Amino acid sequence: GEPGPSFDSLTTRVGQVFRTTVPGAERDQYYLLREQGLVPLTNTQAALQLSDPQTGRKAYGGSSAHARELEPGALKGRLAPGADA
Question: How far apart are CA 41 and CA 1, in angstroms?
Fold first, then answer.
């Protein structure tokens, strides 16, 4: 739940889940924000992360956890070391 980097004008917190939509892609891609950067998640991993009550408390300030929209271009330079988009 620590403050994370700013993506364009979007303020973030470590532990939040992000979703990117790429036109023509079969499905959306999800990412978890860690201290080292964004880490790709499967749809199942994203659902589990978002349904965990701790996620809402820590990463969303007590609000309901939800995937936040992120433009694909915002990924550049934001992935955790060793993470593939």
Answer: 18
